[in-house]
Structure formats: structure tokens, C-alpha cells
Amino acid sequence: MCNSLGIVPGIKTDKGLVDAVGGAPGEQATQGLDNYEKRAAEYYAQGARFCKWRNTYKIQNGTVSEYLIHHNAETLAKYAQLSQKQGLVPIVEPEVMIDGNHDIAACQAVSQRVWAEVVRALHAHGVIFEGMLLKPNMVVYGSDCGTVGEPVEVARATLTTLARTLPASVPGIFFLSGGLSESNASAYLSAMNACTDLPRPWAVRFSYARALQASALKAWGGKEENKAVARKVLLHRAKMNSLATLGKYNPGEDSKGAKESLYIKGNTY
Fold first, then answer.
1. Which residues are catalytic, by number?
2. Interhelix angle for 36-45 vs 66-85, to 10°?
3. How many CA atoms are closer than 13 Å to the CA of 109, on its beta-carbon side?
């Protein structure tokens, strides 16, 4: 049915977060590589054509441990390699989390170190860059910093950091929203696509959960009689983000509720 509708199925293949033994207190690694190649082959046989694996990095005291940076990069690269071996397009998700009181400069420094190490590991494991996608965080202020970045500031910091680390051969970047409000997620993405004086060789798109679904889920509320309204809300959010991919998002066309924070401390799924 999915194929007849032009929908390409995919699957989340990691098995969640565990304490990173050897990392700093509070750091987490992602599990799920045991028997992964067998699982990937089964997912392909069932119709999946892409997959996703998330690793997280929590900034503490302005940094992330070198152990975690290296360990997570190796995990992501091995996952990507085995996925491609079984015909799946891997979405590589190194999320520098919004949790913390760090400023945007700290987020940029950590993101650059993390993404550079992930790219190094992808090279080392022979991953085909043309056959993968990256799902990173945007470079933003920490949730407890007290400052919310302006769209141009976030866009320039994010694009600059990506240009320093990610090969142009990667077809696309699909950002996570990571607790940003719906309007900020759209505004930041739009500012990146409107930027003309920084390198942007990849398709710059979105892969949001909360920033795409939150207002629709709120409108629905689990009630059958609210389905029509919820669909309209979801279509509106999709339109706002679609405009953002063209650099044409206008906050004035958005709903008031789009400005509400979607931050959840230590978000897991």
C-alpha cells in the first residue's frame, strides 16, 4: 500500500540509550548493534528502504567527553556500514542536545568536534556518503541559557559548522527539532535556506517529531470528533516547514501556539 501511494517505508533500528560506561557522569550511549546485520536484512525483506539510529551528546561544563565522542562515532559508523550492506539508506543522527546552560559558541564547538569525528568514522568504515543522510541538531543556545537565538544567528552558526565537517557528497541534511518551538524550528530552517553567502551543497530539510506533530496531537486530544481539526493543523504545520525549505517561511502566517516551547528535559524515545 505504501508503494502505491509513493511512500517509502523506513524504521528506527537502535534499541535506546544506556549509561556510557567510560564516559562522564550523565553521558549516554546507544545500544543495538548485536545481530544488527541480521535485523537489517529482515527489515529490508519486510519493505523498509531506510533506517535511523540516534546517538546523543549532552554538553556539561561546556564540553562532552572524548570517550563519548569517539564511542558514539564508531557506533553510528558501524550501524551505517551494516545498513548499507543490506540495502538500507542509513539516517545518521548525532544529536548534541539542547539541555544545559551553555551558549551558542559552546554548542558550535561541540557540534563541530562531534560531526568531524562522525565523518572520520564513516570514512574509516567505508560508508558511501552518497547513500546516507545526516540528521543533526541545529547550533543553538542551551535550554537553560536564558537566550533564544535569532534565526540568522542560528542559521549561520549551523551552516558554518556543517561546511567545516560534512562532505558535499552527502545528498541531504534533515534536521531534528530537539525541543525547539514549532515556529523557531521553521524560522531557523528557513533562514538557512535563505542564506546565500555560505556553502550549502546539500539539500537542507527537516525530520521533525515534536515540531511537526505537537500542535496536531494537542488539537486531536485522542478524540474521534477532533480528527478533522487535527488534520488541518498538521497540514498547516507541514506547509510552514515546506515553505522553510524554500527560505520563505513567514512567522506572521503561523499560529500563536507555534511559539510554545516543546522542550522536554533529557528527552528519550
1. 93, 135
2. 40
3. 12
The grid coordinates of residue 148 equal 533564544
Contact 193, 110 (CB under 8 A): no
Q: How far is CA 147 from CA 102, 103, 137, 143, in A?
A: 10, 8, 17, 8
- Cell numbers placing 12: 528506527
| Beta carbons of 140 and 107 less than 8 angstroms apart | yes
Task: Indicate the residue type of 201.
Answer: P
Distance (Å, whole) CA 154 – CA 138: 7
Query: Average pLDDT of 1-21?
Result: 92
Residues 184 and 187: their CA atoms lie apart, in Å, by 5
Tens digits of per-residue pLDDT, 20-56? Answer: 999 999 999 999 999 999 999 999 999 999 999 999 9
pLDDT at 168 over 60: yes
User: Are the C-beta atoms of residues 188 and 136 closer than 8 Å to each other?
Assistant: no
Tell the residue number behind the cell numbers 561541540, with chain if given: 110
Residues comprising the chain, all counted: 269
Determine the Cα–Cα distance for residues 129 and 45; give it in Å rounded to an integer: 23
Helix (H) or strand (E) holding 172: strand 172-175
Q: What are phi and psi of 16, to 5 degrees?
A: 95, 175
Average pLDDT over residues 177-192: 95
Q: Which residues contact 269 (CB under 8 A, 6 or more apart)?
A: 209
